[in-house]
Amino acid sequence: MTFDLAARLAARRAEHLFRQRPLLESPQGPQVRVDGQPLLAFCSNDYLGLASHPEVVRALLDGAERWGVGGGASHLVIGHSQPHHVLEEALAEFTGRPRALLFSTGYMANLAAVTALVGQGDTVLEDRLNHASLLDAGLLSAARFSRYRHNDAASLASRLDKASGNTLVVTDGVFSMDGDLADLPALAATAKARGAWLMVDDAHGFGALGASGGGIVEHFGLGLEEVPVLVGTLGKAFGTAGAFVAGSAELIETLVQFARPYIYTTSQPPAVACASLKSLELLRTEGWRREHLAALIARFRAGAAELGLTLMDSPTPIQPLLIGDSARAVELSRLLRERGILVGAIRPPTVPAGTARLRVTLSAAHSVAQVERLLDALGECQALLPPVEQ
Length: 390
Ligand code: PMP
Description:
single chain, alpha/beta, Aspartate Aminotransferase, domain 1, Aspartate Aminotransferase, domain 2, 2 domains, 4-stranded antiparallel β-sheet, binds 4'-deoxy-4'-aminopyridoxal-5'-phosphate, transferase, 8-amino-7-oxononanoate synthase, biotin biosynthesis
C-alpha cells in the first residue's frame, strides 16, 4: 500500500471541488491585484478597512523596532511580553469582562476554550452551521458531541434534556456563510435554564456590530451571565491577526492552566499586539466606519432586491446571494471577474447541497460608487445566464 495522492486529487477535480488559491499581489483593500489582474474585491473580512490603515501599519513597525519580531517562546515560558499584556487588559475592559486571553488565531482560541472546558463524560452541543474550528474543537474534546438545528432553541433544548456532565453550548455569533445572527437571547435562556454554559464565537461580529463595536453581545445587550465564554478574533474587523477569549478570572486562569493550544505554542509577535491595540483605538474613536458600513449594507440589499437576486437574512457585512446550483454560482463569479470584480462562489461541502452562493462581503473601505458598480455588474452577468426554472 502506498499513499495514492494523485488519485485523491484527481477525484477532487472530478467532483468540481478542487480549490484554487488566488495570489494577492497588493495589500488588502477594495482595489487589489490578484494573479496579475486589477480587481475590485468583495470577499475580504477586513470589515472596517483597518488591515492597511497607515496608523495600524505604523504601530506594527514601531512595535517591531521596540520589541523585535518573534514572540520567542510560549506565553508560560518567556513569550508573554508587555504588548500582549496591555492588549489583554484593553480587550477585557472593552468587552466589560474581568479578563481576556490572547491567542495567535481564532482557530486556536476555539480549540483551546472547548477542550479546556469539556472532556470525557461531558457534553458539547453545537449549531449545525458552526465554523469548522468549533466543530473540530467539539470532536477533539472527547465530550459527547451533538449538533442542533441551525439557530433553533427548541432543538437545543431537546438535546440539553439528554445531556450529561458539564454541558457547553457553542454557537457562531454571526454565521460565516449566511451572515445571519445567532438568536443569542433564546439560546442563552435555554442554556441557562438547564445549567449549561454558552460559548459564542463572534469572529465576524466583534468590532463590526454593536453601537461601539462590541459585537453581537453588545447588539443584544448580553453580559457574562448569559454568555460566560466570549471569543473574538482580530484578523477580521481589527484588520490584524489573533484572537481572544474573554470571561471571568476563573475561566481565563483555567485556560492558562489547561488549554493545550494555549500552552504549547509560541506567542504571536508582540508587534502584532501593538497593531491590534491601535485598531482597537480606531474602532472605538471612528464610529463612522460602522455607520458607513451599515449604509453600504442597506444600499447593497436594496439594489440586489431590485435585481431580483435572492438575499439571505443578514444584517451584517456578509451578504451572500443564494444561487443554488454550483455551476451557475461559479459561472457568475467568473463573469464578474471578467468585469474586474472579485466575489467568491461558495459551494458544497462548505455549504449544504443546492445552496451554492456568491459570498459578497462589504467593508467600510468600499465607497457607495463601488457597491453600485458591483450591482451593475451583477445585473449584467445575471442577464447573460439562462433564467432559473422555478
Ligand atoms: N470562527 C469563525 C466563525 C471564522 O469565520 C473564522 C475564520 N474564518 C475563525 C473562527 C478562525 O479565526 P482565525 O482566522 O483567526 O483562525
